[in-house]
Amino acid sequence: LALILGVLALTDLILLWHVYACALALGIVAAFDAPARHAFVSDVVSETEVPNAVALNSVSFNSARLIGPAMAGLLIALVGAGWVFMLNLLSFMPLLSALVILGGRPLAGCETKRETNQAMGFLDGFRYLGAHREMIVMLLMLSLVCGLGMNFSVYLSAMTVHVFGGHAGQYGLLISMMAIGSISGALITASRPKPNFGFMVCLPAVYAIASVLVAWSPNYLTFSVLLIVLGLSLQLFTTSSNTFMQTSTSRAYRGR
Questions:
Q1: Position 166 confidence tier, pLDDT thresholds 50, 70, 90
Q2: Which of 137, 138, 191, 236 is the most exposed place for a label (fewest CB within 10 A)?
Q3: pLDDT tens digits, one per residue of 216-238
Q4: Among 152, 116, 123, 145, which Cα is nearest to 36's?
Q5: Cα 228–Cα 230–Cα 232 angle in degrees, nearest 5
Q6: Are 224 and 159 in contact (CB under 8 A)?
Q7: To the nearest whole number, what is the mean pLDDT of the chain?
């Protein structure tokens, strides 16, 4: 998809519907990619290291979100969007190489391959949830928070332009401020033992309070600083939830 967008942009053939189509395809790819990556984390580390591995994975993701937009903005100004898409294409090569190398080695979860093969039915995941009600509560909380509260690319851009009269640079700063909080939250989670259910239930309330404080921000500076708190609370919740789900689930059902 990065190659398609890059070629279309460099040849000046790109149209708006091309961007829509690639965005749709990216969403479809992500539906397969995200569960596989979540399950793969527990395959490359031991069981006791899963909480730390999940948290460090979040650190790398949010570090990229902190550094990436700033680098992309600079590069777009220097060489144009088309070449930035091509650089994005090249950035996947180390990851693909690592996956090829790992594919030829025995993984930590290979001893459960037979168990996984016996539970391939899609509905088995729902049956497993029915027997573990605390996971249903976790998924409901995650759905509400992620579905209603994680539209940052929409409302941060709207706040920047329509409320504070800002521009792309200020929007990038807001994204970076939130990423600072997210990285801090992921590091805190990495230093903690496996989260318990009571801790998980309290975190959405903290995130809700942080959201209200952000909404009441009187100016751009206050808004940007409070985004650190918002990112911290959200990352604590999402990373801890992911850790809780991964470590509380049988290997055969991880990722589902």
A1: confident
A2: 191
A3: 998 999 999 999 999 888 888 88
A4: 116
A5: 70
A6: no
A7: 82
Vertex 82: Cα angle to 81 and 87 (nearest 5): 95
DSSP per position, 122-152 = HHHHHHHHHT-HHHHHHHHHHHHHHHHH--H
Grouping H, G, I as helix, E, B as strand and the rest as coil, residue 120 is coil
DSSP 8-state code for residue 111: G
Task: Indicate the pLDDT class of residue 76, thresholds 50, 70 and 90.
Answer: confident
Q: How far apart are CA 176 and CA 227, in angstroms?
A: 9
Distance CA 89, CA 83 (A): 10
CB-CB contact of 166 with 214 (8 Å)? no
Kindly write down the DSSP assignment for every residue of 43-69, as one continuous string: HHS-GGGHHHHHHHHHHHHHHHHHHHH
Q: Are 146 and 238 in contact (CB under 8 A)?
A: yes
Asked whether 188 and 238 are in contact (CB, 8 A), the reply is no
- For 38, other C-beta atoms within 10 Å of its C-beta total 17
Contact 210, 192 (CB under 8 A): no
Residue 231: closest CA among 58, 52, 4, 54 = 58
Can you read off the two tokens belonging to residue 75? 């590069």
Tokens (6 digits) for 1:
């998809």
- Confidence (pLDDT) at 109: 54
Helix (H), strand (E) at residue 23: helix 16-44
